[in-house]
Amino acid sequence: MPDHRPTPVPSPELLALQRRAADVLTSLAPEALELGAAFEAAGHELALVGGPVRDAFLGRASTDLDFATSAPPQETERLLAAWGDAHWDIGKEFGTIGARRFARPGAQGRPARSDVVVEVTTYRSDEYDPASRKPVVAFGHTLEGDLSRRDFTVNALAVRVPSLVFVDPFGGLADLAAGLLRTPVGAQQSFDDDPLRMMRAARFTAQLGMRLHPDVGEAMVAMVDRISIVSAERVRDELVKLMLTPDPRPGLEVLVDTGLADRVLPELPALRLEIDEHHRHKDVYQHSLTVLTQAIAMETGPDGPVPGPDLVLRLAALLHDIGKPATRRFEPGGGVSFHHHEMAGAKLVAKRLRALRFDKETVQAVARLTELHLRFHGYGEQAWTDSAVRRYVTDAGPLLERLHRLTRSDCTTRNRRKAERLSFAYDDLEARIAELREQEELAAIRPDLDGQQIMAILGIPPGPVVGEAYRFLLDLRMERGPQDPEEAERALREWWSRHGSGGS
Q1: DSSP 275-340
Q2: Structural fold of domain 9-178
Q3: Does the model's pTM come out above 0.90?
Q4: In what helix (H) or strand (E) does residue 47 lie, and over which residues does it extend?
Q5: pLDDT of residue 384
Q6: Is residue 438's pLDDT more than 80?
Q7: Confidence category of residue 428, pLDDT binned at 50, 70, 90
Q8: 139 has which bridge partners?
Q9: What ranges do the domains of the chain cover?
Q10: Which chain regions cross the lipid bilayer (predicted)?
Q11: Residue 117: exposure state from Cβ atoms within 10 A (0-12, 13-18, ≥19)
Q12: For residues 60 and 246, what is the distance between their CA atoms, to the nearest angstrom?
């Protein structure tokens, strides 16, 4: 029987992408077409795949080009060596070889084209052994089979080169137009093959502004325990990519709502403290997401003090209150307190980031910002001395500009008068910091005498006493500001006489 069902009418969004697709297919770098011709001449298929194709349809330029090929890795390496000015073995065991074609001068009157960087991977499928944390690589035979093993349909797009035939076996372009995140095969099968795809789903909701297909959301909830086989380093890398998107909030909400955060970042869902009927404290989870959004808005351009996206600031904004659940106390009279939650939070931040294998510098910076994020709140209640301002700057050290932004972002009150009062107080603090910095070079505060001078004045050898004297002079510098050498020496001798000639 003939099929008399009407042909679906493409949506305006799909038509727009299809028109853009035509432009994409005709604007590929000539070097990419040349590479495709080389593979074709050798009897192999080559196709541009995945993110670069997706991003091109979205009007986003990709600096690197990813290809899939029917050629085995050894043959790929040979062809890339002939095509490129440099090539490297990214991971031959995974079938991937990279190459770079250096920039060539443009035609007369045209600017030179930039370098072309490619990665070419043999058709493959990634699968996990149930007891292993590492993917098992199996090479495939067809482009469609390779695309079927991609994480989502919007990444299962390809353009064959040099013929420029568009390949979309799973309706990824229509999903892209609809803003729908769907898997090429059953979601449970896809996530079973590579559980990290569940975290990628969260990232793409933020990065691409997409929503989860119901099958994807249900599979994530059902399979959260499967993420435990993925290494901490891979989880960390995916979390970092999410945090560096323009608006990580939707992705973080997906992690929490599906239960994935309970496995990879449990301190975040733990912030969902129940709110009592008297609303004695705000929702700490929603507050933290709002602080993150506000901190991102305060990042600067590349020439500013905190160029965005800044991972340290964003992690600190998200995690600054994770000490609250452990320190919450219901006080007599109906109040709620979180005494010293900044100290508890700093320890929890360091523990979690170390578990995720973050580098030492990032761990220390985020923990320090967490520890310091409440320091300002006494400023508006009573005027700080110059000494207190100096200590604030010195304790923050190179994190001061981030601390400025974290502290300002931490104000999420709906009380306009309170918000304006806090903003004014911090404006005043920053003005005083600028004034003292101009006078005293705050960023490089040191005692007025160094260790060698201390030993010479007191006639003592190196040892713990020199450190005690140094700390005394540093405290004095904080309290009184810069002193001339004679004043510093007089104060040091007075300190020494109080401690006895033996320094005891």
Answers
A1: PPTT--S--HHHHHHHHHHHHHHT-B-TTSSSBSS-HHHHHHHHHTTTTHHHH-EEPTTS-EE-TT
A2: Beta Polymerase; domain 2 (3.30.460)
A3: no
A4: strand 46-49
A5: 80
A6: no
A7: confident
A8: 124
A9: 9-178, 184-265, 277-444, 451-499
A10: none
A11: middle
A12: 14
